[in-house]
Fold this sequence. Notes:
- The chain is of the alpha/beta class.
- The protein has helices spanning 15-28, 50-58, 76-83, 90-101, 126-133, 147-160, 179-192, 209-219, 230-239, and strands spanning 2-8, 33-41, 63-70, 106-110, 136-141, 164-173, 196-201.
- Helix 1 (15-28) packs parallel to helix 2 (50-58), helix 1 (15-28) crosses helix 8 and helix 6 packs parallel to helix 7 (179-192).
- The radius of gyration is 17 Å and the shape is globular.
- The termini are far apart.
- Catalyzes a mechanistically unusual reaction, the ATP-dependent insertion of CO2 between the N7 and N8 nitrogen atoms of 7,8-diaminopelargonic acid (DAPA, also called 7,8-diammoniononanoate) to form a ureido ring.
Amino acid sequence: MTMLVMTGTGTGVGKTISTAAIAALAVAGGQRVAVLKPAQTGVGPDEPGDLADVARLAGPEVTTRELRRYPDPLSPEAAARRSGLPTLDPGEIARAASDLDTGHDLTLIEGAGGLLVRFDGTGSSLADVAWSLGSLVIVVAEAGLGTLNATALTAEVATKRGLTVAGVIIGSWPAEPDLAALSNLEDLPVAAGAPLLGVLPAGLGTASPDDFLAAARAGLSPWFGGEFDPELFTGRASAQK
């Protein structure tokens, strides 16, 4: 059984799309897949959250579980405080992940925002969850200017906390990448201290399930069951400019 913790360098970097892409490839490969979203913020009780996107894109075969939902678009701790709803602790999240792991080949744990976003007043975070589970960490990063510092900070914190960053994924690659984005194809693995495991195109969340699977296969590393070659992609992207 395998568990992967999915974190981002911030919000809106393509973390849910990256999670869904990994799940889609695993399902296509015959694996039993679960996705755990410990805390969903900024979504009302009857509104579709991130897990609805995962199920729509990766397929109904994926088991999804959400532990807490808070209406305000804030960190889980701040959203819980404002709403008066219970907070989360790493132990509860780890137990839920372990429970899913017993019946699945791959369990993906998708955080809210970055690695150190707080779940409760004690400062517990996704980093604590990853440590308690002994899980590898996948960092989803932005493509353009400013991403190197955020990626390096995430990787440094992960390493100091005894975690292993397995790789970095660019979660939303622009149709017309600028100089910074093209340069970051080579620089992001250095910042992360880990390989570039994928580049997913912007706007992928609107694709049909079949097109999404094809894009996931093209955009993710063979490590996930895909066909992505970072050197080939970098060469082709640079040649377009």
